[in-house]
Amino acid sequence: IVATGSDDRLWKMWAFPNGNIIMTGEGHTDWLSGCCFHPSGTQMATSSGDTTVRIWDLSKGKCILTLGGHAHAIWDCSWHSCGDFVASASMDSTSKIWDVNSGRCRHTLRGHKDSVNSIEFLPFSNTVLTSSADKTLSLWDAR
């Protein structure tokens, strides 16, 4: 299965390799920049130009949580391997660590001087890697 997001504000899940559409989701009010599966495969997070990250229950095919707090578009998102946290990278020069159980921002990571373009939890750790338009990479302790 492959998930994609698009300028049409939709995400789609595709069967691979035949290319059949399995599911489509709508709810964002601007383009989608990223899709990432929960470690269990039961949920998906999407990031968008509408400044939100949405959490989708794939068994129901609908949004179960909207995370808002960035001032500008969000370029990327990543699940922690435990499945309780999502990280987001934004054009507002910050990244955020979200607790999906409470629906709240746990940490705002500040330090980049320009848009944060990608974010990734390192496997089975509390370390987050970000890359920025300021031409730097940063490693963060998300604890």
TrEMBL record:
Gene3D superfamilies: YVTN repeat-like/Quinoprotein amine dehydrogenase
Keyword Nucleotide-binding: no
The entry's keywords: Repeat, WD repeat
GO cellular component annotations of the record: axonemal central apparatus
Extent of the WD repeats: 25-66, 67-108, 109-143
Record-level GO BP terms: axoneme assembly
SMART domains linked to this entry: WD40 (SM00320)
Pfam families on file: WD40 (PF00400)
SUPFAM superfamilies cross-referenced by the UniProt entry: WD40 repeat-like
Protein name: SPG16 protein
Gene this chain is encoded by: Spag16
